[in-house]
Fold:
Amino acid sequence: MTVNAKTRVTPRRALLLGAVAALAAGMVVGVTGAAQAGTTLGASAAEKGRFFGTAVAAGRLGDSAYTTILNREFNQVTPENEMKTDATEPQQNQFSYGNADRIVAHARANGMQVRGHTLAWHAQQPSWMQGMSGSTLRNAMLNHVTQVATHFRGQVAWWDVVNEAFADGGGGGRRDSNLQRTGNDWIEAAFRAARAADPNAQLCYNDYNTDNWTDAKTQGVYRMVQDFKQRGVPIDCVGFQSHFTGGSNYPSNYRTTLSSFAALGVDVHITELDIRNAPVDAYRNVTNDCLAVARCKGITVWGIRDSDSWRSSESPLLFNGSGQKKSAYDAVLAALNNGTTPPTGTPTTPPPTTTPPPSGSCTASATPGQVWGDRYNTSVTVSGASTWAVVVSITSPQKISSTWSGSPTWDGSGLVMTMRSNGSGDTFGFTTMMNGNSSARPQIVSCTAG
Ligand code: G2I
Structure:
């Protein structure tokens, strides 16, 4: 992640710089190495090497109550509607960037990174595009991707190149749309055009209802990303919208979803988070899940105050309509600060009776073991913790056939194993059947202490 100007000197770094200066002056100092707890979402996330952002509406930038919270709390923004196709190309080949430029300028002036949302989507198309089909539409879409990504080159850190291209329901396939009917390769064509237009932006696929690891839609997107990585289609990240509103709930296997995608070699982002009635536990869990996955680079909430939400009747955000911090805010900040009590704000509801599992990190390193014609061994040594959970992923059709010196659990696909310490030491091992793939090797996804 590029550390932006706003968060470049973190409290920890300031402490270290001070210590270096003191040492240079011949003084003896004690440095504990403990990071100082941040007091805002952005600063605390930056302490953990992550961003914390929000969707922003250009029409609200004149509301000082809104911009006060925005500038204080967030170090990343996503234009809520202003970069969509109907906004940026209202007439074919006549581009309109006023509102998007205003958000980008505000972000840059305040040291916030920008996520571009979105270059190719079946919804919010201008009417001229809605009526198109075939190669005319394909070319118009590619021209749009090229023009818009070129306009914002150097100003957008990540692009949601393609948004919501998979169908809901059990099939795990693509959503029918005018773009899909131009040919199944429309998504990769959009990614290649975006890479050519802005080689330094990170290119993401973004979708909703992809949070539950066992859902067919999640698996469908997973297979596409896996295929893109194998064939060299330029994709860098996957966005999980995580709208836990309108009847969709936070799933207990959310961390498995994030870590499984990360194991494909992409960053993962939580891009449009909102949760009906803003329950403390679910907000805390989402935050801890992201922190537990090294490639989960940040969280974006879909609006600042409940009154700014697309689902305002569900009060799903971190600030109430008056701009006050809600209990969920305190829970997220505390989780970002790794369980320490946030120095500002008093929870308005009693603390939950269940204590979240400790989420400190450890290090796990894999050592290749004996190889046979049909299988091979791997051993993994953990340091930095005496009790731990290590997540390991393997590549289908390989399969882990036996394990030792740990207690394994498995996700629904059988490709992601969580190995917990069982008191037999810091090293565990396992045997993997190749099943025809002799080259793939297991990947360590995460190591969590406790
Ligand atoms: O639907 C929630 C989000 C799902 N993922 C993609 C996001 O881009 C999407 O955002 C929402 C915006 O939050 C809404 O603000 O996308 C909606 C449109 O699909 C946005 O709604 C639109 C209304 O449809 C328009 O009538 C309105 O003029 O918001 C516009 C601006 O307020």
